[in-house]
Design the sequence.
């Protein structure tokens, strides 16, 4: 029996649970440190993150279903350091090229496309109907949101958030810890961390 624990009882976690069931997990449960949360849809919240070691000993795999990059990074690193098996999940309706590298704990949602020559770091979210074109490097714990697109040879730093419908033009480098607003268009390199919005983007 394949069993999965999702850390973080949220709507995002619910989408991850759907992927897990579609790719053959028989049992999906959640952990969340908010004691008021008992269920996520039809899925049970067994308790707080302190139960991770016990569940790991019972044969559960793990994935972190938390949108905040810094929190996702911290929790995933804690899981790996404690010996938990953190898995990478790809929706069966995603398109991932033969040579794409996906880091541990990354989740690829329905309708996403990742083209040849691309490397996606650990703990990333490649969200619904987004696309990452050829020869991209997506930094650790970054999030390519619903309907966002990167053209060829883009380098997106670690802990970046590419908002819904945002676009990064080809041959662009974006530094670590950048938030790109919904619908924004990046046409030049971004070298300073911060929040960027508009067409073309400007720093807030």
Sequence:
């Amino acid at each position: 029996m394949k069993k999965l624990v999702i850390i973080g009882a949220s709507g995002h976690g619910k989408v991850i649970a759907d992927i897990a069931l579609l790719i053959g997990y028989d049992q999906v449960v959640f952990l969340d440190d908010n004691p008021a949360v008992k269920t996520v849809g039809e899925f049970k919240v067994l308790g707080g993150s302190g139960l991770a070691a016990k569940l790991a000993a019972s044969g559960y795999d793990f994935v972190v279903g938390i949108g905040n990059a810094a929190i996702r990074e911290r929790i995933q690193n804690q899981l790996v350091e404690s010996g938990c098996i953190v898995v990478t999940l790809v929706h069966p309706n995603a398109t991932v090229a033969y040579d794409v590298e996906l880091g541990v704990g990354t989740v690829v949602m329905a309708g996403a496309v990742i083209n040849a020559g691309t490397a996606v770091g650990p703990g990333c979210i490649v969200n619904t109907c987004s696309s990452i074109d050829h020869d991209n490097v997506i930094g650790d714990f970054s999030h390519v949101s619903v309907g966002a697109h990167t053209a060829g040879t883009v380098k997106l730093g670690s802990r970046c958030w590419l908002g819904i419908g945002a676009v990064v033009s080809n041959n662009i480098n974006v530094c670590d810890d950048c938030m790109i607003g919904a619908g924004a268009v990046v046409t030049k390199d971004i070298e300073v961390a911060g929040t960027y919005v508009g067409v073309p983007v400007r720093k807030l």
About this structure: The chain has a mean pLDDT of 97.
